Amino acid sequence: MATSVLSPPFFHPLHQLQFSKCPRLSSKSHFRPRLLRSISQRTIRAISAVAAESELGTQQDHAIEADIFACPVCYEPLIRKGPSGLNLPAIYRSGFMCKRCKKTYSSKDRYLDLTVTAGLRDYTEIQPARTELFRSPLVSFLYERGWRQNFRQSGFPGPDEEFKMAQEYFESAEGGLLVDVSCGSGLFSRKFAKSGTYSGVIALDFSENMLRQCYDFIEKDDTLSTNNIALVRADVSRLPFSSGSVDAVHAGAALHCWPSPSNAVAEITRTLKNGGVFVGSTFLRYSSKTPWFLRPFRERTPQGYGYLTEEEIKDLCTSCGLTNYSSKIQQAFIMFTAQKP
Fold this sequence. Notes:
The chain is an alpha/beta fold. It is 31% helix and 19% strand.
């Protein structure tokens, strides 16, 4: 699927806007310099605000984009400039700005970067080792070429069966917007998009290389339409969506990788609509069938993954306000679901 795209629109910082110079006043003028500066500054600020609003345009008739994407700093809907539509070419050629804090966002390498640190030049944030692992180009390349297949040894039934299980849980979200958080290389994002069950699918991950790999898989798949799929870089603990705007959230083999599962589940709950569904899968630290003498050897360590027990996952979901919790367990594999009331 070769798609011709244009570079994202350029947002002109307000300090680069050109304004005509004020005429010089004669020495006999009654205006004092301090008052003149005050008037000029107020005028420039007013003109700057109007220019920024005019350049980006509110375009209320394209409300679908404002309803979907929000600023990860203040959660205000983003103003969009560019072609409409939740698809790769349209989003790549669009620019976004938060109406409140004026922070701008644009696409890079085929994905839209909606992290808090998007656009920063000097600041670098240190991430946990397990987060950095999945940002590696090698791990991103290997994820669907052997890495994910090893999950079967722990009881994972395989992508096809896991997708079928998730679809059953998502039955009430048919026709809505689905966000596949921590999507990795888009293994399930592509399946959700191909199913035609949802109005839109957003493949979301913190790893730049995973999203690039996801794009490569999409581009090579002639059976996958890109009319309803978007790639977004974001932090699961700071999701770029307005509260109550998402119908379904999927997190496949992800919860154990999150630095703070409680923050992530709380964010997922915030973004879900009333009646929205959350489905996740992960590795259990141990299950009710694990012999008691083996449990101490499977406790979490500070440097390892955050494996939870079945009881902890249920407690986490209910404490974040989710209801109707249920799960299916096979060895160390668990798929669970919960709903926002």
